[in-house]
Design brief:
The chain is of the alpha/beta class. The protein is built from six helices and seven strands. The mean pLDDT is about 90.
Length: about 140
């Protein structure tokens, strides 16, 4: 999808996309690309969270990642994560295994506005960064 077509998205179409994503708990690489562009236009709000380890993030990350929350330390940040439960949270890892587990756990905890990038960063064909500055982490 090109940027011109993305700017033509109606509010209803965006809401339907968000409903579909949260209902299925998955977002495709193409859908995430559209969502990142809509967010850049300030038409959509969500957090993109990488749950891989820091060394993996350094090797390659999705441009627009808001937070790095490695699975090895995520248990230390569950209270802070609960504070974000009203926002749409999209998680990604390398190929999707860790995010599948994360989605399962968060669903059981009552999170409903969550999704994972289907196929992980490997399946994302949008802009990726190498050696990107670290995004914020939870305190």
């Amino acid at each position: 999808m090109d940027e011109a077509r993305e700017s033509e998205w109606s509010d209803e179409a965006m809401m339907n996309l968000v409903k579909t994503v949260t209902r299925s708990c998955e977002v495709s690489g193409e859908e995430l690309h559209v969502m990142l562009n809509l967010r850049a236009q300030k038409r959509l709000d969500f957090l993109l969270i990488d749950i891989r380890e820091m060394y993996e993030y350094s090797q390659s990350s999705i441009k627009g990642t808001d937070m790095l929350l490695p699975t090895s330390t995520i248990h230390q940040h569950m209270e802070e994560l609960k504070k974000l439960s009203g926002k749409l949270l999209i998680f990604y890892c390398h190929i999707g295994g860790r995010t599948s587990q994360m989605i399962f756990i968060l669903r059981r905890m009552g999170f409903s506005n969550i999704a994972q990038l289907s196929g992980g960063i490997d399946a994302f064909h949008g802009e990726k960064l190498k050696n990107a500055p670290l995004p914020k982490t939870m305190k």
